[in-house]
Design a protein that fits this description.
Helix content is 36%, strand content 18%. The protein has twelve helices and twelve strands. The strands form two sheets. Strands 1, 2, 3, 4, 5, 6, 7, 10, 11 and 12 form a ten-stranded mixed β-sheet that branches. A two-stranded antiparallel sheet has the order 8-9. Helix 7 runs parallel beside helix 9. It starts with 12 loop residues before the first strand and ends in a 6-residue tail after the last helix. The mean pLDDT is 87. This is Family 2 glycosyl transferase. Keywords: Transferase. GO terms for molecular function: transferase activity. InterPro entries: Glyco_trans_2-like, Glycosyltransf_2, Nucleotide-diphossugar_trans.
Length: 352
C-alpha cells in the first residue's frame, strides 16, 4: 500500500501563559488553549509571584485537568512581564512560541490560523499578529477590531469610509448576519512602527525571538513592544486580519487606561511615562545587533531604522553612538543641534 502521509511533521508550538494576580481569568485562558483545533502544542503557565492565590488555583486546576502538555512555573519573586516571557521561553524548545496573557482568551482556530500563515508558500516572517475582539471583564463584546493593527482597511471616501460586510461575528452569534474575508498581509523588516495587536495576538519564530529575550532590556512591562519591534527586524511580520482572540479591558491592564471609547485604546499614564525607556531599550538592541541586521537586510538597513526611530523618540538624537550610522548631512545637522544647545545653556537661554 502506498504511503500517503506527508513527508514531514507539523511543528510544535510552545504556549506561554503569563499570570500576575489574574486568578479570576486564568482558567478561561488555559481552557482556550485546550480548545485549540491545532493540537501539537505544549503550554507552560508562568505565575509571577501572584499575591491573590493564582499559582495555587492553577496548580489545582492542572491536577483536575490531567493534561501532560500543561505545566506550571511559579516564580518565587516578581520579575515583571519580561521575566515571564523568558521563563516560559526557556522551558520549551518548540520552533514557534505564542504568548497569552492570563486575562485574555484565544478562539479555537488561533494556533491553526497562525501556523497556516507562517507556513505559507510566499513569505516567511519572524512573527505573526492577528486581530482581536475587545471584551470587558464579563466578556461583553465592545469592538471587533484593534485599530492599530496594520491590516487592509477601506480607504477614506469623500463622505466617509466604506465598511465592507464580513461573516465572522455572524458565525459566532447567529443573530448577526454578515460576510467575511480574512487576508494575510506581509510587512518586511524595513516597515517601521507599531503594526501589531497586543501580546495575546502574537506567534513568534523561536529563532527570531531568542536574541531578543537574551538582551538585557531595562523595562519589565510592555514586553510585546520591544519583543515584536526587535524580532520584526530579522524577517518581518505577517498580519492576520481575522479576529482570533478576546482582548479583555478590565481596568487593571498594564498598558490600557480609561474605559474603551472606540478607536485607539487610551494608554495608561504609567505606560506613557516609560515609553521613552522602551524606545531607548530598542535603540540599545539595534546598536548591539547592527552587524547581524546589516548582514540580513543590507548596509543601509540600520541607518534607515535609526533615522525613523530617532524621529519617533526625539530625545535619542543626542546619543553619540548614532554618529557612525548617520549620513554626512545628518552628522552636520546633529553637530549644529548640539552646538546650539550648548550655546543656549551657556547663556542661560535653556534649562540645564
Amino acid at each position: 500500500m502506498e504511503d500517503t502521509s506527508p513527508p514531514f511533521e507539523l511543528p510544535r508550538v510552545a504556549v506561554v501563559i503569563t499570570c500576575y494576580n489574574y486568578r479570576p481569568y486564568v482558567e478561561q485562558a488555559i481552557r482556550s488553549v485546550l480548545a485549540q483545533t491545532y493540537r501539537n502544542w505544549d503550554c507552560v503557565i508562568v505565575d509571577d509571584a501572584s499575591s491573590d492565590g493564582s499559582a495555587e488555583h492553577v496548580r489545582e486546576l492542572l491536577q483536575a485537568i490531567g493534561d501532560p502538555r500543561l505545566r506550571l512555573r511559579a516564580r518565587s519573586e516578581n520579575g515583571g512581564q519580561i521575566a515571564g516571557f523568558r521563563d516560559g521561553f526557556a522551558a520549551t524548545d518548540a520552533p514557534f512560541v505564542a504568548f497569552l496573557d492570563a486575562d485574555d482568551i484565544w478562539l479555537p482556530n488561533f494556533l491553526l490560523a497562525h501556523l497556516s500563515a507562517h507556513l505559507n508558500p510566499t513569505r516567511t516572517a519572524s512573527l505573526s499578529s492577528s486581530d482581536v475582539f475587545f471584551v470587558d471583564s464579563q466578556r461583553t463584546l465592545l469592538a471587533s477590531t484593534y485599530v492599530m493593527l496594520r491590516k487592509p482597511r477601506p480607504e477614506p471616501e469623500a463622505a466617509g469610509i466604506g465598511i465592507p460586510a464580513f461573516r465572522q461575528l455572524g458565525a459566532m452569534a447567529g443573530e448577526l448576519a454578515y460576510q467575511s474575508d480574512h487576508p494575510v498581509t506581509y510587512f518586511g523588516p524595513s516597515a517601521y512602527g507599531w503594526m501589531w495587536a497586543p501580546t495575546s495576538s502574537m506567534v513568534f519564530r523561536r529563532g527570531a525571538l531568542e536574541p531578543v529575550l537574551a538582551f538585557p532590556f531595562r523595562v519589565k512591562t510592555g514586553t510585546d513592544y520591544f519583543a515584536a519591534t526587535c524580532a520584526h527586524l530579522a524577517a518581518g511580520s505577517l498580519i492576520l486580519s481575522e479576529s482570533l482572540g478576546l482582548y479583555r479591558l478590565h481596568g487593571a491592564n498594564a498598558s490600557a487606561g480609561a474605559a474603551y471609547a472606540g478607536g485607539h485604546v487610551q494608554q495608561s499614564p504609567a505606560y506613557l511615562a516609560h515609553e521613552a525607556t522602551m524606545g531607548a531599550d530598542v535603540l540599545d538592541y539595534v546598536l548591539a545587533h547592527a552587524e547581524r541586521l546589516r548582514a540580513i537586510n543590507g548596509r543601509d538597513f540600520v541607518p534607515g531604522f535609526l533615522a525613523q526611530h530617532v524621529r519617533r523618540f526625539g530625545a535619542l538624537a543626542a546619543d553619540p553612538r548614532l554618529t557612525p550610522f548617520l549620513s554626512s548631512k545628518n552628522r552636520r545637522r546633529q553637530l549644529r543641534k548640539r552646538f546650539t544647545r550648548r550655546v543656549r545653556r551657556l547663556f542661560g537661554w535653556a534649562p540645564r
